[in-house]
Design a protein that fits this description.
By secondary structure, this protein is an alpha/beta fold. It has helices spanning about 1-25, 30-35, 40; strands spanning about 30, 45-60, 65-70, 80-85, 95-105, 110-125. The protein has a 5-stranded mixed barrel with strand order 2-3-4-6-5. Strand 2 and strand 3 (about 65-70) form a beta hairpin. The relative contact order is 0.18.
Length: about 120
């Protein structure tokens, strides 16, 4: 009986750590509005964010381009553009992790005040 109690306590402890890790990870997520507001300080840093995919352009310049929105930000700061080797579909809820680039100009009218590059994309089920 004592071994069973120890095993049960270990299971509860382990589950508690898993729950803590998930909430700690969620606490590190940036909103789209916060990314735009702090873009200068975040340039070159790796961030995580989540949102709904509202537009996808695949295989342009060797990468996929996702546009995310999370309901934050104003008219010109509510759409987060993300480049990735991975893709998602319009309507997917995703979490991304990538490097912040500011004032990125690709020429031909494609300039971005804020861009998240080389992102990993996790689709929420």
């Amino acid at each position: 009986m004592k071994i069973l109690s120890i095993a049960f306590a270990a299971l509860i402890f382990t589950l508690g750590l898993v729950s803590f890790s998930a909430s700690a990870q969620d606490a590190n997520l940036k909103t789209v509005a916060a990314l735009y507001q702090g873009k200068a300080a975040l340039a070159g840093k790796t961030i995580s964010a989540q949102g709904k995919v509202v537009k996808v352009n695949n295989d342009i310049m060797g990468r996929n381009w996702l546009h995310l929105q999370d309901g934050t930000g104003a008219a010109n700061s509510n759409d987060l553009v993300v480049t990735s080797k991975q893709t998602a579909a319009v309507g997917d809820q995703v979490t991304i992790t990538g490097v912040v680039a500011v004032n990125r100009d690709f020429g031909s009218g494609y300039a971005y005040a804020l861009l998240i590059e080389e992102a990993s994309v996790v689709i929420k089920k």
